[in-house]
Specification:
Blueprint lengths: L7 E2 L5 E2 L13 E2 H4 L14 E5 L5 E7 L19 H20 L4 E12 L8 E11 L3 E10 L2 E14 L2
Antiparallel strand pairs: 1-2, 3-4, 4-5, 5-7, 6-9, 7-8, 8-9
Length: 171
């Protein structure tokens, strides 16, 4: 997705997939517990804290991940300067995409990554920061989805990627 296709303008011409200025970023559409009804991720791999917003057909949404400091990766990535691993940034975006996919079809499906494309990491995310995750569906069918995802902290894009997921189980 090109910058001109994005909606929200941040500082210095930076733009995001979803118009964050039109959303109450303190709102909660789904708590962690409510997300568990729609995504299969659990324990250390349940990364999202909440879903902030989704459009009517669940093709776009915003989620939140707050880095608290007690996560499994903090001690080793990196001692003295913990930074959220890029792969977990993308995973958090994928979990939001999975939530939106399952809400779109109103059913819990186990979906797995098929592809991560065009991943770019622009800023680190560390303890004490909240990363907003933006997701915009590109293509959604009952069997698979393709979504653009990105993370935003303090008005700066941390990462962006295009992900593809596929339903691998009806349960």
């Amino acid at each position: 997705m090109t910058t001109t296709q994005r909606q929200d303008k941040l500082g210095d011409g930076v733009s995001t997939l979803v118009d964050l200025s039109s959303i109450d970023l303190n709102a909660t559409l789904a708590t962690r517990e409510q997300m568990f009804e729609m995504i299969p991720h659990r324990y250390e791999m349940a990364l999202l804290d909440r879903v902030v917003w989704a459009n009517e057909d669940f093709s776009s949404g915003v989620g939140s991940l707050s880095v608290k400091g007690d996560e499994f990766w903090v001690r080793g990535h990196f001692p003295g300067k913990p930074m959220l691993p890029g792969v977990l940034m993308v995973e958090a975006g994928a979990q939001l995409a999975c939530y939106l996919y399952n809400r779109h079809f109103d059913a819990l499906h186990l979906a797995a990554f098929l592809r991560i494309e065009n991943a770019v990491f622009r800023r680190s995310v560390t303890v004490g920061e909240e990363m907003l995750l933006c997701c915009k569906g590109i293509k959604v069918t009952p069997r698979r989805f393709v979504s653009s995802v990105e993370g935003v902290v303090d008005g700066q894009i941390c990462f962006e990627a295009t992900i593809t997921g596929m339903r691998i189980s009806a349960e």
